[in-house]
């Protein structure tokens, strides 16, 4: 398979919370992701809370994709089916390639917790300009599931037989 590093490679990770109601005091999902990535040894590049506006999301994520200071973007929120949930529509056009298995695996893992309600998750992942982007639902539980069930391993260069680190700029 792919080359796997023998040492941990700290990544520069940006976190975006998409919410019309959360602020820094109430953003438990974004804070969970920040704490988790730091605890894992990665670096927080930036953390932002934006209203659910696909053009603001595209502008911010495009800036991160173009920056050598960001290798991974974690987005929480805006992946449901309400009229205000536009994260997939905002992010999909920016992707050079989709990581279909991310959403599939997220829904598979979540099925154990939520049953068939997991079909309403539009979690997605992809690569853009050698930057990995992962969109998770807005609940802290969903972020925990995504981080512990998928991302912690896939963002670790030591994970075998393969991981995303080799695909990222500057890694």
Describe the protein's architecture and organization.
There is one protein chain. The protein has 171 residues and is of the alpha/beta class. The chain has a single domain, classed as Molybdenum Cofactor Biosythetic Enzyme, Chain A. Helices cover 35% and strands 19% of the residues. The protein contains five helices and six strands; from the N terminus they run βαβαβαβαββα. The chain has a six-stranded mixed beta sheet, with helices on both faces. The radius of gyration is 15 Å and the shape is globular. The two termini are 18 Å apart.
CATH superfamily caption: MoaB/Mog-like domain
Discrete helix count: 5
Kindly, what is the distance between the CA atoms of the first and last residues, rounded to a whole number of angstroms?
Answer: 18 Å
Q: According to CATH, what is the class?
A: Alpha Beta
Radius of gyration, in Å, reads: 15 Å
In short:
Helices cover 35% and strands 19% of the residues. The chain is an alpha/beta fold and 171 residues long.
Quickly list its features.
about 170 residues, alpha/beta, Molybdenum Cofactor Biosythetic Enzyme, Chain A, six-stranded mixed beta sheet, 5 helices, globular, MoCF_biosynth_CS, molybdenum cofactor biosynthesis, MoaB/Mog-like_dom_sf
């Amino acid at each position: 398979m792919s080359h796997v590093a023998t040492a941990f490679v700290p990544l520069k990770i940006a976190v975006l919370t998409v919410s019309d109601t959360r602020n820094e005091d109430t953003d438990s999902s974004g804070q969970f992701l920040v704490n988790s990535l730091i605890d894992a040894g990665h670096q927080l590049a930036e953390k932002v809370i934006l209203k659910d506006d696909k053009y603001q999301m595209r502008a911010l994520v495009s800036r991160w994709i173009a920056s050598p200071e960001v290798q991974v973007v974690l987005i929480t929120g805006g992946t449901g089916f309400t009229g205000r949930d536009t994260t997939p529509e905002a992010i999909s056009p920016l992707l050079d390639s989709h990581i279909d298995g991310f959403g599939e695996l997220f829904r598979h893992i979540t099925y154990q917790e939520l049953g068939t309600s997991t079909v309403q998750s539009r979690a997605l992942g992809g690569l853009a300009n050698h930057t990995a982007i992962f969109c998770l639902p807005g609940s802290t539980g969903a972020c925990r599931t995504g981080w512990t069930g998928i991302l912690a391993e896939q963002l670790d260069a030591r994970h075998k037989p393969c991981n995303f680190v080799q695909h990222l700029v500057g890694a």
